Amino acid sequence: MRRLFYLLGIAIAFIFAGASVSSAATAKKAEKPQQVVLTSEGGLEWNGNKKTLTAEEKALVVRGDTALGADKIIAYYKENAAGKDGEVYLVKAFGNIIITTPKQVVYADTAVYEIEKSVIILKGNPVKLVAGQEQMTAKVLELWQKEDMAVARQNVTAQKDTRRLEADTVKAYFVKKENTTQVERFEAEDNVTITNDKETVQGDSGVYLVDKETATLRGNVKISQGKNFILGEVADINMKTGVSRLQMLSEKGKPRGQVRGVFVPDEEKKNKKPTSLEKPKAPAALKEENSVGGHETNEKLLSSSNEGE
Fold first, then answer.
1. Burial of 296 from C-beta contacts in 10 A (0-12 / 13-18 / 19+)
2. Is 153 in contact with 138 (CB distance < 8 Å)?
3. pTM for the structure as a whole
4. 120 secondary structure, DSSP code
5. Which one, out of 160, 169, 245, 273, has a CA that is 20 to 30 A from the CA of 122?
6. What is the chain's pLDDT, residue by residue, as a tens digit (309 residues)?
């Protein structure tokens, strides 16, 4: 069975039956399904055989406090045991994705919304997440709504002001403060680099606390300032003060390794030629030529005195 609902220029909505709740907090506590509303300005296509509803032209799906807009949306639903009522379990969206929640705004090219898990998987070139003053980009982003967490993968960059965090994988944890939601911390893995206008810190993994502006990096840590750098295994960095502490880990029964620092001389000083020493000048008495009045030169006086010895 295939039905087409089409109203030109007028938004048409399709509401999937379910246990509606008054707030996201209540839904999380009771773990009841939330009502899903799908709207479109271009029309809705309902396929009873495939159990799908397709919306195009300014398509929008709303579930609780989450709104997902796209060029095209396909909602997949299942019926209850009596064959009545429909409950959406999956939503796929394509083109110009915009997701808004109280915690963040996300832009992407495609999205898969797993309703039962409250997980949204987004892909883009790149996907962009904005949460307060934090901006994070990646090729793949997962929103785990129940856990208040986002997982970014592949070419991940998280930036705020002059601070920039890069890694292969970054987890962002959200927290509500003073009626606003912001990123509490980042957990980064593989090829981690944190930079600001003072220094660059690299390591295998790290945790960055946003409010405190402090980070702890582990594994092959390198802290650089210009061409100078120090190497170690664990680093505690304070981005506010610019103070970093680096140390080596020690295995049981083995001595602790040494932190190593390399300091490169300033290039100007390195290439600057040493000041040439002037050749000492001869005393003025040795430079005098024949004196006026028939007196002999100093050179002759010296030679005659030597002969007499």
1. exposed
2. yes
3. 0.73
4. E
5. 160
6. 445 544 433 344 556 643 333 333 434 444 566 789 999 988 889 898 999 999 988 999 999 999 999 999 999 998 776 555 678 999 999 999 999 998 899 999 999 999 989 999 999 999 999 998 899 999 999 999 999 999 999 999 999 998 999 999 999 999 887 777 789 999 999 999 999 888 899 999 999 999 999 999 999 999 888 888 888 888 898 888 878 788 765 555 444 555 445 455 665 545 555 545 455 555 555 455 444 444 444 444 334 444 444
